[in-house]
Write a structure and sequence with these properties.
This protein has helices spanning 14-23, 45-52, 67-76, 93-98, 122-130, 166-189; strands spanning 3-9, 32-39, 56-59, 81-84, 103-107, 135-142, 152-159, 193-195, 201-203. By secondary structure, the chain is an alpha/beta fold.
């Protein structure tokens, strides 16, 4: 039986598109299935994309007060793994507890640098440039109760070039996200990467 994925997104959903296209290739669809897309914005591009692909989609208040409703949606669609793709809210504790080790996120920097509350989108890239950092990148990590704090699954560096603007750096980092995130999600779906009892990411190499 394939792992059922839910994607939580707040915006246009470019990582959602990259994941969906990745899973539709070869035999991957038998391993993991994109079963649900949820957004805290009713007009999010991610919802429009899902509906054109016949993927269940709905807008929902994902904040603290909406945690029970979010959890109910995930359970009603028999979701096994939750994927954050540009989701701008802190996942409610009730959901984190129910899906411990089964929620993943991608962040546009090399955590723990340039992470935390308020560090998202262009803010991250502007901060990287302002700090004079020579390298940025993307980080895939498990989600816990704190912003950008869970165990790291994978990272991919991206050089910061002379004269870079936040937009230029963002475009290069996003390309890396699209390459790094889908296979990382598939590895978690296959239990090749998991969260151990001590909150660390463990990697298991399985036969292909």
């Amino acid at each position: 039986m394939s792992t059922r994925l839910a994607v939580l997104a707040s915006g246009r959903g470019s990582n959602l598109r990259a994941l969906h296209e990745f899973l539709m290739r070869g035999e991957r669809s038998s391993i993991a299935k994109l079963a649900l897309v949820l957004s805290d914005h009713a007009d999010a591009g991610a919802l429009a994309y899902a509906r054109t692909r016949d993927i269940a989609a709905a807008s929902i208040d994902g904040g603290t007060l909406g945690g029970d409703r979010l959890l109910a949606q995930l359970r009603s669609h028999r979701i096994d793994l939750v994927v954050l793709a540009g989701y701008m809210r802190l996942v409610p504790e009730v959901v984190v507890h129910a899906y411990r080790g089964r929620i993943v996120n991608v962040h546009p920097a090399l955590l723990p640098a340039f992470g935390g509350r308020g560090m998202y989108g262009s803010r991250v890239h502007a901060a990287v440039i302002a700090a004079g950092a020579r390298v940025s990148g993307a980080t895939v990590h498990f989600v816990d109760e704190r912003y950008d704090h869970g165990a790291v699954i994978a990272q991919w560096p991206v050089p910061v070039l002379s004269g870079d603007t936040p937009q230029a750096l963002a475009e290069r980092v996003l390309r890396v996200e699209h390459a790094l995130y889908p296979p990382s999600i598939l590895a978690v779906a296959q239990s090749r990467i998991s969260l151990d009892a001590n909150g660390r990411a463990t990697h298991m190499h399985l036969p292909k």
